[in-house]
Design a protein that fits this description.
Elements (H helix, E strand, L loop, with lengths): L6 H6 L36 E7 L3 H12 L5 E4 L8 H4 L31 H14 L6 E2 L4 E7 L4 E6 L4 E9 L4 E4 L13 E4 L13 E5 L3 H10 L5 E5 L6 E2 L8 H9 L1 H16 L1 H7 L5 H14 L3 H6 L12 E2 L3 H5 L4 E4 L3 E5 L2 E4 L4 E3 L2 E4 L3 E3 L7 E3 L6 H4 L18 E3 L12 H20 L10 H14 L36 H7 L13
Parallel strand pairs: 1-2, 1-6, 2-3, 4-19, 6-20, 8-17, 9-10, 9-17, 10-13, 11-12
Antiparallel strand pairs: 4-5, 5-6, 7-18, 14-15, 15-16
């Protein structure tokens, strides 16, 4: 799973110190933040108009809202589909759910929390942090909860967007900022006979806490980032656990530890220490990008570390072989876990690498004809990524459809703007994801960039902010060329780099998910929005 009142200062210090500490020492506890937080009255009546509509109240949407307020812009509404804010940290409640980026780094630069309880914060604590930040900035009254926007249509005559909610309510906005995130629509494989399964079947992002796992025969499909976290949590309680794996992951030791209370107090009393520690964490992770994006040979060190870790924990050579990846570290998401390998070595846990061919009412059948009993089926199969048609229809200039424009894969300018869709901005859009560092860092850079674009509208330097087609095309052509040297591009016949195929590096060779470089490089590129990129071509 990866600025406020002092926004400008925080942005200026973003690389060296990664922002100023403004978060109070006594953050709301996870236990204190429970239940829905629907506003007493909706912030916008049906048919109403707002200057800026933000879609989604997760890390990105809240950051956009806070920065708008900091800039003196208060005519905005955050449209949230659920009854509570938090995005992925609200939706994912599976056992063991936590961030795989150090907690002191996975937070806003303008709202740093000195009192994280662990090196890698658990889901309830991250959700409490977001609730706390939203409360401190008075955002709940600006969030239209339980208002999923299903359609955006650009009105060329009125020069604004028409928004339609799932229940038929409609609104208009001069600007739309889509902060719905790239990973929020669960992906469930189409297995023959799945509809006949008699037991409980659910995706990890929709965890069924009402389903008793103790003493049951549980099947888990997938060994990705979520599965690596919840498998060790449920294994001690089930009668038998069968894990179905398509591709083994590279797993490195997580080294998760409690943060001593004294350290948290010291960070709270001396904010400079927290800024310094955050900077150390940032540059440690930034160094990983040297191997990912510039010299994949450097990933060999991590591969050796993972192999030694696995050999120390797993004695069975056959099991070690099944868990041995045949691709370069970093091609797929690097996973961190202190107990996944140990769990897979438990006597009542079985790893199956043969494909599933049929789901029966009480069993799964694999291609070798073996039938394995199953009472509960859990999908740890990840998410659909950058799916423009997943619950949101976007119609731009001239009736063009974003789903059609992105049929061959999503494409944007700097991850935030798409030609043909005026006054429409994306946060965590195409090619702005990371495989090594905190996505919150990228979000803050994008929000600052969008605010610059909005000033052009206020100053009437532009009637509409729409990136030029030639600018977007040239940017993406150059961007894709940068992937040639990265770990995400396969090199057939290479003696040192194995073939790479993953959800963000598909077989057609176009990587539409990740930024191919240092996050610091993206931060520098986003410091100044150039109006020439958006001026109508002469």
């Amino acid at each position: 799973m990866a600025a406020g009142p002092a926004g400008d200062a925080a942005a200026e210090s973003g690389i060296a110190g990664l922002g100023r500490t403004r978060h109070a020492a006594g953050m709301t506890s996870a236990a204190a933040v429970t239940g829905p937080n629907v506003a007493a009255e909706p912030p916008l009546a049906p048919g109403g108009h707002v200057d800026v509509a933000i879609l989604g109240a997760g890390f990105a949407g809240l950051c956009m809202a806070i920065k708008l307020q900091a800039a003196g812009r208060h005519d905005f509404v955050v449209f949230e589909k659920a009854a509570r804010l938090g995005g992925t940290w609200r939706d994912n409640t599976y056992p063991g759910c936590a961030c795989d980026v150090p907690a002191h780094l996975y937070s806003y630069s303008f709202a740093q929390n000195p009192r994280w309880s662990r090196t890698y914060a658990p889901q309830p604590e991250i959700l409490a942090y977001l609730e706390d930040v939203a409360t401190r900035h008075g955002l709940h009254r600006r969030i239209a909860f339980e208002t999923p926007i299903t359609e955006l249509v650009w009105d060329e005559a009125a020069r604004h967007w028409r928004l339609t909610a799932a229940d038929g309510r409609s609104f208009t906005a001069r600007v739309v900022v889509s902060a719905v995130g790239a990973l929020h629509v669960p992906a469930v494989p189409d297995l023959p006979g799945l509809e006949r399964f008699a037991g409980a079947a659910f995706h990890s992002a929709r965890w069924r806490h009402d389903v008793e796992l103790a003493g049951r025969r549980v099947a888990v499909i997938g060994t990705g980032a979520s599965a690596v976290q919840f498998i060790p949590e449920i294994a001690p309680h089930v009668e038998r656990l069968t894990v179905y794996q398509r591709t083994p992951p590279w797993v490195l030791p997580r080294r998760d530890r409690p943060v001593p209370v004294a350290i948290g107090s010291l960070f709270a009393w001396v904010p400079g220490l927290l800024r310094g520690w955050r900077a150390v964490q940032y540059w440690r992770r930034e160094a990983i990008a040297l191997g990912l994006a510039y010299k994949p040979k450097l990933m060999g060190r991590g591969q050796k570390q993972s192999a030694r870790f696995k050999e120390r924990v797993i004695a069975d050579p056959d099991l070690r072989l099944k868990l041995n990846p045949f691709y370069t570290l970093g091609c797929k998401r690097m996973l961190l876990s202190d107990d996944f390998y140990a769990t897979m070595a438990r006597p009542h846990v079985e790893l199956v690498t043969t494909p599933i061919t049929e789901v029966r009412p009480d069993a799964l059948v694999t291609a070798d004809g073996v039938e394995r009993p199953c009472d509960v089926l859990i999908f740890g199969t990840g998410f659909k990524t950058f799916d423009a048609s997943a619950g949101l229809r976007v119609q731009g200039r001239g009736g063009r459809s974003l789903a059609d424009d992105w049929r061959r894969g999503p494409e944007a300018f700097r991850g935030v703007a798409v030609h043909g869709y005026p006054n429409h901005f994306l946060l965590v859009g195409p090619n702005s994801g990371l495989g090594h560092n905190s996505i919150v860092f990228m979000i803050e850079a994008q929000v600052r960039y969008v605010l610059q674009c909005l000033r052009w509208l206020d100053e009437r330097r532009l009637e509409e902010v729409e990136v030029r087609a030639d600018v977007q095309r040239a940017y993406n052509e150059a961007l894709q060329k940068r992937f040639e040297r990265t770990v995400w591009r396969s090199r057939p016949g290479s003696a040192w780099q194995l073939p790479c195929s993953s959800w963000y590096a598909p077989d057609d060779g176009r990587n539409t998910a990740l930024w191919p470089g240092l996050s610091a490089g993206y931060w520098l590129a986003m410091r100044r929005a150039e109006i020439a990129d958006y001026m109508p071509a002469a």
